[in-house]
Amino acid sequence: MRDLFVFLIVFGALPFVFKRPHWGIYLWSWIGYMNPHRLAWGFATHFPFAQIIAIVTLISFIVSSKKLTFFWSPTMGWIIVFNIWMLISTIFAMYPDDAWEQWLKIIKIQFVVFLTLFALLDREKIHALIWVIVISIGFYGFKGGIFTLTTGGGESHVLGPSGGFIAGNTEIGLALVMILPLVWYLYLHTTNKWLRYGLALSMFLIAIGILGTRSRGAFLAISAVSVFLWLKSSRKGVIFIALLMLSPFFYMIMPQSWHDRMSTIQSYEQDGSAMSRLKAWEFSYTMALDRPFTGGGFESHTVENYQRYVPHQIEQGVATFHDYHSIYFEILAEHGFVGLFLFLVLFISYWRTANKIIKISKSTDQNKWALDLAAMLQVSFIGYVVGGAFLGLAYFDLFYHYLAILIMTLKILEDKMNTPIAAETEANGA
């Protein structure tokens, strides 16, 4: 039944996508983030829903091109340059076959995210996309929160959908941290009483679910996000009281095994998992020194390269083989120092775009939604840069989708400012 349900939703919506490109973005995001077909057990599990949706959406863009607004921004240029550099590093990759396979997977995601910029150029469409993202990822936090409460937070981890970027406990933990501020944004801008109750409950359960992942990186990220959520929120009193009341509860419901694991953050030298990260970072940096411009290319974290660049890590004749365990070292190893520079430029562009939105939006209550959205996206960003330091989610589409949302929001505000009515109102106000 689950297989049939997913099929009915996707293929039932595809006819509408032909005339409405933004429907394709919503549908693709739902499949990409929630992976509902992975919750089935039959023929839908490995069906290429995302590819079909992307093709139909592209056709819809071509058919509807005259109705769409195409524009340009410096941040979009940096996104393109970053993608071009990933192509160059793939051309010179150490393992071409594996690298091209990974590049194809990532460029498809980047392409659809780029299409988002031209399909959702009004507040309602952006708001709808945020709902899709929050529901798709939040589902696992809501379910995980219930699981953690009912099991007492035992040894089992809260996990994400299998087969995707966020399948593991650390990955879903970071994804949940990144959507938590947007749940608050939706709460602030939702008038329906029952929806607000549901969003408040979701924030509580998602926070529990993050702790239930037992991920130390996610714990550090949610700690940072909590502070910045208070700093950036327009309702600091409510946030402060909630944190003051709920933090002790969150702390007490988790078992001793959870506290023991979190305590290893301070004594990382005695923890095997933490030391494996340091070894992976050493490998990444050493390989980047040897290949400073293009790095090793995608999928270059192989046993052979560990033997080549960090032979002292070899134990009993076997190379210690780890993933990069960091968005920064992942980009550095696979795309060199140039790639890391471009990646960090996107970070700067993200923050500056959000600041510009906040500056513009402070002048009128009509733009309160944009101010709150930009502020909460900055809070999400803090979660990504902190949590991402400890796991390899450099190509996770959520960060790039958030960047696209900021670009679109700024475009909406600037267009509104440049309309004759808006200009006259501003002049009168002055």
Your description of this structure?
This protein has helices at 2-17, 21-34, 49-63, 74-91, 96-119, 123-151, 169-188, 193-212, 216-232, 236-253, 256-263, 272-290, 303-309, 327-361, 368-387, 397-418, 420-429. It is globular, with a radius of gyration of 22 Å. It has a domain at 1-68. The chain has 430 residues and is mainly α. The relative contact order is 0.12.
CA radius of gyration: 22 Å
Low-pLDDT sequence parts: 421-430
Q: What's the number of extended β-strand segments?
A: 0
Overall 3D geometry? globular
The description of the largest β-sheet is: none
Percentage of residues in DSSP E strands: under 5%
Mean model confidence by pLDDT: 85
Span from first to last CA? 61 Å
Q: Strand pairing plus helix content: what structural class?
A: mainly alpha
Helix and strand sequence: HHHHHHHHHHHHHHHHH
Task: Assign a percent range to the helix content.
Answer: over 70%
Give me the number of helical elements.
17
